[in-house]
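Task 17 of the worksheet. Students: predict the tertiary structure of the chain below and write it out as C-alpha cells. Keep your answer in the requested format; marks are given for formatting as well as content.
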Amino acid sequence: MIRKGLNVPDIGFCLALLFSGGAIGKLVCGFVADKFGVLRTVMVLELLTSVIIFFIIGVELPVIIILLPVLGVALNGTSSVLYGTVGDFVSSTRQARAFGIFYTLGIGSGAVAPVLYGILIDSFDLNVALSIIALSILITLPLSFVLQPSYAAAAKKN
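Model answer:
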C-alpha cells in the first residue's frame, strides 16, 4: 500500500475495511454454508480469495480499496466455515483431539507463514510473494474434491 502512495493513516483505514469485511464474512458465510454446503462454500471463497489477491497486484489503488472488504469476507468467512467442518468429519468421541490438532496447525501456520512470506518478499519482490500466496490458496481446491466423498459419508451418519 505504501508503494501505491498511501500514508500510515490511510493504511489504517484500509485495514479497517479489510477487518470489517472479515467480521461480515464470519457472520454471513456460515449462513451461506448452511444453504449451499460447506465444501462448495469453501471452494468458492478460496477461489475468490485467490482471484482478488492476483487482481490486486495489477490494479490501481481505488480498485484495491473497493476490494478490501470483499477480501476480508472471503478470508474470514473461509476460516469460520472450516472451523465448523471439524465436527462434521470426526466422530464425537474424537472431536476434542481433532479440534486440538486443527487449532494447533492453524495457529502454527499463522505463526510460520509471515516469516516464510517475508523471506519470499526479501528474495524476490512483493508481487511474486502475492502470486505465490494466491497460488498456494488454490491448493485447497483439489483437496476439497478429495474430501467431498468423506463429507457426504459423514453427513449421512449425522
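Marker's comment: The chain is about 90% helix and 0% strand. The radius of gyration is 17 Å.
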